[in-house]
């Protein structure tokens, strides 16, 4: 009889211990943190000396900055979600842009249309490389290593853009884009550089580091 009672007590204690286990946290290892979109203006201080910084609004996703407009089509189609986490419905976009000898730099924060945005890891596996087209522009995208940010999933994309112009000529550019998923918002930085420029371009690492600084400013 005493053995039965002891067994019951052990089972009850185990059950209570299991019930008290903490709930799992969102991907990234910590609870989602509050974001203040207005703080995006502070990121202008992080651009190189001599850069002309201006505020921007209405930019909803990286493909817009890549020069594809809002009607870019991806192949495979499912990969478009990596370039545009809000699926064309991003709201209240705020950001800054800076132009200088090293290229054009953007830092933008976008509000999700409903609920939160999250990185689909299955797409990261399936879409190591894909294309997007819009009008005369074609963007060839491949994934690169993103920076690590505490409490946020991140994504890195290197994009080669070709635009056909009159006379059968083509204009080429490179965009390095890094995105952080921040719950009700996502933030991204993009560096647009001209491969034929006589000036030394900023490096992709600059854009990656700028994303880290952008998220820090948004959380401040």
Give an account of the 3D structure:
This protein is α+β, with helices and mostly antiparallel strands. The chain has one domain (about 1-220): Protein Transport Mog1p, Chain A (3-Layer(aba) Sandwich). The protein has helices at about 1-20, 60-65, 80-85, 120-125, 205-220, and strands at about 50-55, 75, 90-100, 105-110, 130-135, 135-145, 155-165, 170-180, 185-195. A nine-stranded antiparallel β-sheet has the order 1-3-4-9-8-7-6-5-2. A hairpin with a 2-residue loop joins strand 5 and strand 6. It is globular, with a radius of gyration of 22 Å.
Structural class: alpha+beta
Total count of strands: 9
Shape: globular
Q: Determine Rg (CA atoms, Å).
A: 22 Å
The span between the termini is 61 Å
Mind describing the biggest β-sheet?
A: 9 strands, antiparallel
Helix content: 10-25%
- Beta-strand portion reads 25-35%
pLDDT averaged residue by residue: 84
Short description:
With 220 residues, this protein is an alpha+beta fold.
Please render the helix and strand layout as text.
Blueprint: H1 2-19, E1 52-57, H2 62-66, E2 73-75, H3 80-83, E3 91-100, E4 103-111, H4 121-126, E5 129-134, E6 137-144, E7 153-164, E8 170-181, E9 185-193, H5 204-219
């Amino acid at each position: 009889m005493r053995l039965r009672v002891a067994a019951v007590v052990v089972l009850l204690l185990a059950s209570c211990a299991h019930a008290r286990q903490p709930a799992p946290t969102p991907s990234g290892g910590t609870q989602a943190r509050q974001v203040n979109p207005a703080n995006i203006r502070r990121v202008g201080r992080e651009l190189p000396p001599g850069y002309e910084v201006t505020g921007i609004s209405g930019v909803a996703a990286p493909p817009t900055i890549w020069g594809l407009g809002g009607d870019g089509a991806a192949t495979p189609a499912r990969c478009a979600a990596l370039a545009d986490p809000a699926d064309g419905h991003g709201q209240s976009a705020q950001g800054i842009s800076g132009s200088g000898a090293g290229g054009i730099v953007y830092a933008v924060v976008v509000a999700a249309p409903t609920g939160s945005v999250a990185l689909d890891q299955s797409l990261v596996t399936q879409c190591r490389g894909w294309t997007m087209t819009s009008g005369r522009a074609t963007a060839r995208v491949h994934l690169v290593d993103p920076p690590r940010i505490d409490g946020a999933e991140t994504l890195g994309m290197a994009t080669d853009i070709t635009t056909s112009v009159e006379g059968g000529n083509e204009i080429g550019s490179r965009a390095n884009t890094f995105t952080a998923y921040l719950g009700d918002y996502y933030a991204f930085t993009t560096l647009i550089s001209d491969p034929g420029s006589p000036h030394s371009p900023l490096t992709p690492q600059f854009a990656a580091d700028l994303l880290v600084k952008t998220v820090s400013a948004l959380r401040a």
